[in-house]
User: Which sequence fits this backbone?
């Protein structure tokens, strides 16, 4: 969530959106129904705010001992006053609590409830505030960053994984009910699967717009101790419904939204024989993304340019797959492969070199660490495949499946940006055959069963790569043998 006058930087950094009382009460009613118990010996909330969920727990489970932690002193005081002697509310930073010690003193069965802050490390950067796990000395990476290789992650994912880890290690019988982003719940389920945690799981969709005025897919994630590893996860459309709408499950170690469809289309599973590529990453749109106008080439700053044609390529962004642009887009591509020395450009294309140098500060201001210690004007996601004449492309941002054949324009290959994925192809025939096969009903069923359409980037290289092109093409065009003809 971005800061606004009502969203102070601290409110954003703390993900400080308190759970409304009616939602807290529905959550606890559901827990009592699902857990089939009227008794929990203790209830723990790791970021309890003003105590809305703990208050609902107090009335649903009158015998339980209540324990809450909260960073904000004023919220912690409100919660303590609201709950009285029934509860112990501690003002503390989640990241400095000794969870193993706290858990060891709680009687079981134990209920963990909560609504941990919905904030990402990227947003923390924007509001210039810290609320994250302690930095590790090596490389300055946080625990989750080091583990996942991701530079942006949800604070709540880290918190919930940490809490689950400690609770499982305690050996206590527990039940966990957490309000969180749908994406966080999915990643936690994948972690649980990878770590072979013995858990039951279910998911209930929440109307985040209604309850929190937030435009994000949100859920209530229920997890509880089980004899077996986490496997099939029923998904319910809301908190009141008792019949699941669908079932999540696992295929090849990853979570899939439609287990039945995944099983039905399993015959196409394999490793894609050709590598799906991502488009070019540059983080310098104002300088390298150009438009051909009747007056000539123009950059996003409105400057008219005189450049040699060598490094200019027709260009498509992910959004262009969804809606045809009115502009004729071109991209200035300073490198043909990652790490290529750019100094020879001074002599090969002096006008382009002068233009790049004139805007050197814009390149230098790029935040991502990938550009450090690289040649001047470096880009990423570039290689011989970027310049394949024919391609089959798809937007990573699309909310439906549609693959498109991409042909050269004005005698030059079209290059894509990093919001697209593509297969580089040897020929027009090959691109046509792949496009048609990938748009077939069989391929659509395969991908639809595996794609979470509510994700920010629903289409990922990982999902695309799980379909065997050979199996797909084999079913339709048995005579085609060019799959192995040339590795691009
Ligand atoms: C989404 S609100 C939910 C509050 C409360 N759990 C509820 O359901 O009403 C997130 C809460 O987490 C607290 N919080 C944020 N970062 C925290 C941290 N590092 N340690 C403890 N609490 C934190 C915020 O102050 C805020 O009260």
Assistant:
């Amino acid at each position: 969530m971005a800061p606004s006058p009502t969203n102070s930087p601290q409110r954003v950094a703390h993900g400080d959106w308190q759970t409304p009382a009616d939602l807290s009460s529905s959550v606890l009613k559901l827990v009592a129904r699902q857990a089939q118990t009227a008794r929990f010996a203790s209830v723990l909330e790791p970021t309890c705010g003003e105590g809305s969920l703990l208050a609902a727990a107090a009335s649903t489970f009158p015998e339980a001992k209540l324990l809450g932690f909260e960073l904000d002193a004023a919220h912690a005081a409100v919660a303590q006053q609201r709950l009285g002697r029934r509860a112990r509310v501690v003002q503390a930073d989640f990241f400095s609590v000794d969870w193993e010690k706290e858990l060891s003193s709680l009687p079981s069965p134990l209920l963990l409830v909560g609504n941990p802050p919905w904030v990402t490390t990227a947003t923390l950067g924007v509001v210039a505030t810290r609320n994250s796990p302690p930095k590790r000395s090596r490389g300055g990476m946080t625990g989750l960053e080091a583990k996942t290789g991701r530079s942006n992650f949800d604070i709540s994912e880290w918190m919930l994984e940490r809490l689950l880890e400690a609770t499982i290690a305690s050996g206590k019988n527990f039940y966990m009910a957490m309000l969180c982003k749908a994406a966080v719940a999915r990643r936690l389920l994948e972690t649980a699967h990878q770590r072979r945690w013995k858990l039951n799981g279910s998911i209930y969709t929440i109307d985040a717009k209604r309850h929190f005025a937030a435009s994000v897919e949100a859920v209530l994630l229920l997890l509880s101790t089980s004899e077996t590893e986490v496997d099939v996860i029923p998904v319910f459309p809301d908190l009141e419904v008792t019949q699941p709408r669908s079932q999540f499950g696992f295929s090849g170690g990853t979570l899939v939204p439609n287990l039945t469809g995944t099983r039905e289309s399993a015959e196409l599973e394999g490793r894609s024989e050709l590598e799906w590529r991502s488009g070019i990453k540059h983080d310098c749109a104002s300088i390298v993304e150009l438009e051909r106008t009747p007056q000539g080439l123009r950059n996003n700053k409105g400057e008219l340019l005189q450049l040699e044609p060598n490094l200019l390529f027709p260009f498509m962004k992910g959004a262009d797959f969804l809606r045809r642009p009115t502009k004729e887009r071109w991209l200035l591509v300073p490198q043909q492969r990652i790490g290529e020395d750019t100094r020879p450009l001074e002599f090969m294309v002096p006008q382009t070199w002068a233009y790049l140098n004139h805007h050197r500060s814009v390149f230098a201001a790029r935040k991502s660490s990938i550009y450090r210690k690289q040649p001047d004007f470096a880009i990423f996601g570039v290689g011989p495949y970027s310049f394949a004449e024919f391609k089959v492309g798809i937007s990573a941002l699309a909310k439906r499946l549609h693959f498109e054949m991409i042909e050269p324009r004005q005698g030059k290959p079209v290059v894509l940006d990093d919001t697209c994925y593509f297969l580089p192809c040897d020929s027009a025939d090959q691109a046509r055959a792949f496009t048609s096969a990938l748009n077939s009903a069989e391929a659509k069923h395969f991908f639809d069963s595996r794609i979470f359409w509510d994700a920010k980037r629903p289409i990922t290289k990982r999902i695309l790569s799980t379909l065997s092109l050979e199996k797909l093409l084999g079913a339709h065009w048995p005579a085609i043998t060019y799959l192995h003809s040339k590795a691009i």
